[in-house]
From TrEMBL:
The chain crosses the membrane at residues 40-61, 67-88, 100-124, 144-165, 177-201, 221-242, 254-276, 282-301, 310-330, 342-362. It comes from the Bacteria. The keyword Transmembrane helix applies. Residues 1-29 are annotated as: Disordered. Keywords: Membrane, Transmembrane, Transmembrane helix. The lineage of its organism: Bacteria, Bacillati, Actinomycetota, Actinomycetes, Pseudonocardiales. It comes from Pseudonocardia xinjiangensis. Signal peptide: none annotated. The keyword Lyase does not apply. Residues 1-11 have a biased composition (Basic residues). This is Uncharacterized protein.
């Protein structure tokens, strides 16, 4: 019965994160007690976010094995996390008490990550469980890194584009459960089409990867997607859809948003790669640092900085600090299969990204945030 009710419940016309300020309800992610306001609420969240980020960054036996194994798995997990956070609105965990809610949803994200990574292996070659979990699986086995990364990144970029930039239209007319599943399927369909048409795959002997032609290498496609992600985070997470969110006509908002995000991403990549001559790994690491900073400032410390200019400068400064810090750390480590900048990209994109999304978007800032009942009480008190 709970599944039936969830399927039938309708989503609002627009995602809350990009709705106009006057039409948006007070945030359900408020704190209580000592953490009632920012930046206290965000600083408290770091107590949980940082350990999770460290676990993903080095928890699979060190920095290099973690990048090779956890990097692809977490990237495949991100579309499922977005589905639960933005489409299912934390169901099925929302049916449980706080704490257990986040654990259940996180468990579902982990299961989805493994299944989707296996699907990714099937697309690029064949399913290989050893290649899924072993950073050095050996000849005849198919490692997920880097072969599956363009597919995983494309699925997540498409999910964010559909959810935030396209306002979930027209899928939001369906019930929460059906709409979320449909969004995940559509995102994967877009990723598959992009992989088949655009990505050039060169299969090393014994890798198990199926080679095919395309105009861009996997590294180039990955860098473009990360830069597009930086525009998505700036415009639709940090700036909450500005300047398009206030426009009355949906088609105008969607067209303008897509032009800004996709056009801005491709143009930025062209400047960095074509004019400045930056390597794709550097572009990925730099843009990934901006995404990580945008999620920290725009989600973890949501509402602390009111000015859009102030938000951009804060994100930019934090991005520079993150890139510099992790580059220094990476340059002092030994590498055999990955490169220092590839690990930096893994840390900022996957370890920091997933930890912030899990804490804020899925766990609803537990144990520092208010429960749904407490939030409703606060809304009634603030009502005129």
């Amino acid at each position: 019965m709970d599944l039936v009710r969830t399927r039938r419940r309708h989503l609002p016309d627009r995602p809350t994160i990009s709705a106009p300020a006057r039409a948006r309800k007070p945030s359900a992610h408020r704190g209580r007690g000592l953490f009632a306001q920012q930046p206290g609420l965000g600083l408290a969240g770091l107590v949980l976010v940082v350990p999770v980020a460290v676990l993903v960054a080095v928890g699979a036996g060190g920095p290099e094995p973690s990048a090779l194994v956890l990097g692809p798995l977490v990237t495949f997990a991100l579309p499922a996390a977005a589905m639960i956070a933005f489409w299912w609105e934390d169901w099925p965990g929302s049916s449980l008490r706080p704490g257990w809610s986040g654990l259940l949803d996180t468990g579902l994200v982990i299961i989805a990550a493994i299944l989707l990574a296996m699907l990714g292996q099937l697309v690029v070659g064949h399913v290989d469980l050893r290649g899924l979990f072993d950073p050095t699986p050996g000849p005849g086995h198919l490692p997920t890194y880097p072969a599956t990364l363009p597919l995983a990144g494309a699925a997540f970029a498409a999910m964010l584009q559909l959810t935030l930039v396209c306002e979930g239209w027209p899928l939001r007319r369906l019930g929460r459960f059906t709409a979320g599943v449909a969004a995940l399927v559509v995102s994967w369909a877009v990723a598959l089409a992009l992989y088949v048409v655009v990505v050039r795959v060169e299969a090393p002997p014994g890798s198990g990867v199926t080679a095919h032609s395309g105009p861009l290498s996997g590294a180039e496609v990955g860098a473009v997607l990360v830069v597009i992600g930086a525009w998505q985070v700036l415009l639709f997470v940090a700036w909450r859809g500005w300047p398009f969110a206030e426009w009355h006509h949906r088609w105008q908002r969607i067209v303008a948003g897509n032009v800004a995000v996709l056009g801005g991403g491709v143009l930025t990549f062209g400047v960095g790669y074509g004019l400045a001559g930056l390597p794709t790994s550097t572009i990925t690491a730099v843009a990934g640092s901006f995404i990580a900073a945008g999620l920290v400032i725009g989600m973890l410390f949501e509402g602390w900085i009111r000015s859009r200019t102030g938000l951009f400068l804060a994100i930019l400064l934090l991005a520079v600090a993150l890139y510099a810090l992790f580059t220094i750390l990476a340059d002092n480590l030994a590498w055999t299969m990955a490169t220092p900048e590839q690990w930096v990209g893994h840390v900022v994109l996957t370890s920091i990204g997933i930890s912030v999304v899990l804490h804020v978007g899925i766990a609803r800032r537990w144990p520092f945030g208010t429960t749904d009942d407490e939030s409703q009480t606060l809304e009634r008190k603030e009502a005129p």
